[in-house]
Specification:
Distance between the termini: 44 Å
Radius of gyration: 21 Å
Structural class: alpha/beta
Strand content: 25-35%
Number of strands: 19
Helix content: 25-40%
Number of helices: 12
Bound molecules: guanosine-5'-diphosphate-alpha-D-mannose, magnesium ion
Length: about 350
């Protein structure tokens, strides 16, 4: 099994702590280790991991792997083209090395998983299924109608016929609108897609080639001319830039599950305290809170403040008589937001980008 860690996201929803130069996967949001280092740690001991990130973050990534004492190869993308191409690079590399039949364990670099033992147990269950040719997804029991996730409908009826823990997937819907997400919750039988996958390298490329031959071809071209220095592997920049931008969820999982008679996608339920820490509110939810429901971080005095996240990285920050706020103060930017509006922090970030 080859762990493949996708670490090229921009983490804009955790602005102003997460920045273009220093996105959230490289930050320690929930422990002293960065989210990337936590991702490596929860694997137990593995010989080698394959990391895929942006050229811009190569030293951050390499240094964090060195501190974690983890041997790795690091693919550098000249531009982000989302996760379908990122995974393709790792898969093509495996095939080129004669390891096309090896399972890739595809992981996001920015998740929190509390129960590492259960995580490892479920990964071990996935491997024989992936070896047989299945594309394995890991399903989280949903707690609310969240529009930022993919939804997986398990075919429980078919699942009953087999003596294993995985269910065939009847439907995969990436990021539905709120109304649709709510009907999935009401209906039952749906899981959230955890964003982790396991499949053989050759199987991924086969399916990618069926649904997005343009992405496969661009990635194959980009891998024709690679250059290696230290742990870094650079792909052909021009060829990679020409690759369409698409996530694995839209490019492969959704169309594959919708295809007639496709039963190679399975879901393994994962109950291991998973959180994708996609926003300040999500982070507030998983953190220990004081008796007023506040998460306080840094030099902060909070009076008559409830259910809020107040963080300061340098100067003193004080709050008085407020509820349900997110306050994040950094040396050059301050965010004050209503907790329920926190997804819109993306809009602020794009406004800042537009103005620069
Ligand atoms: N190398 C590389 N290049 N990595 C990338 C890129 C890229 O261009 N874009 C994103 N990533 C990394 C991110 O750093 C993260 O670790 C992972 O890939 C997933 O990307 P996100 O951008 O965070 O995806 P998402 O959260 O919107 O959606 C995915 O995850 C959800 C669960 O957290 C989907 O798989 C959803 O279906 C899923 O529910
Ligand atoms: Mg995410």
């Amino acid at each position: 099994m080859i762990p493949v860690i996708m670490a090229g996201g921009s983490g804009t929803r955790l602005w102003p702590l997460s920045r273009t130069q220093y996105p959230k996967q490289f930050l320690g949001l929930n422990s002293d280790l960065s989210m990337l280092q936590e991702t490596v740690k929860r694997l137990g001991s593995v010989d080698q991991v394959c990391l895929i990130c942006n050229e811009e973050h190569r030293f951050l990534a390499a240094e964090q792997m060195r501190v974690a004492n983890q041997s790795c190869s690091i693919f550098l993308e000249p531009v982000g083209r989302n996760t379908a191409p990122a995974i393709a690079l790792a898969a093509i590399d495996a095939v080129n090395k004669g390891l096309g039949g090896e399972c890739l364990l595809v992981l996001a670099a920015d998740h929190v998983i509390e129960d590492e033992q259960t995580f490892q147990k479920v990964i071990a269950q996935a491997e024989p299924l992936a070896k047989e040719g299945c594309l394995v997804t890991f399903g989280i029991v949903p707690t609310h109608a969240e529009t930022g996730y993919g939804y997986i409908k398990a075919d429980v009826r078919k699942g009953d016929d087999q003596s294993r823990d995985a269910y065939p997937v009847a439907e995969f819907v990436e990021k539905p609108d709120l109304e649709t997400a709510q009907t999935y919750l009401d209906e039952g039988g749906y899981y959230w897609n955890s964003g982790m996958f396991m499949f053989r390298a050759d199987r991924y490329l086969e399916e990618l080639g069926k649904f997005r031959p343009d992405i496969l071809e661009a990635c194959q071209k980009a891998m024709l001319d690679t250059s290696t220095d230290m742990d870094f592997i650079r792909v052909d920049a021009e060829a990679f830039k020409a690759c369409p931008d698409e996530s694995v969820d839209y490019a492969v999982m959704e169309p594959l599950c919708a295809a007639e008679g496709a039963d190679s996608v399975v879901v393994l339920p994962l109950d291991a305290g998973w959180s994708d820490v996609g926003s300040w509110t999500a982070l507030w939810e998983i953190k220990d809170k004081d008796s007023d429901g506040n998460v306080i971080n840094g030099d902060v005095i909070a009076h008559s403040t409830r259910n809020s996240y107040v963080m300061s990285t340098s100067r003193l920050v004080t709050t008085l008589g407020v509820d349900n706020l997110i306050v994040v103060d950094t040396p050059d930017a301050l965010l004050v937001a209503d907790k329920s509006k926190i997804q819109d922090v993306k809009k602020i970030v794009s406004e800042i980008k537009d103005n620069n």
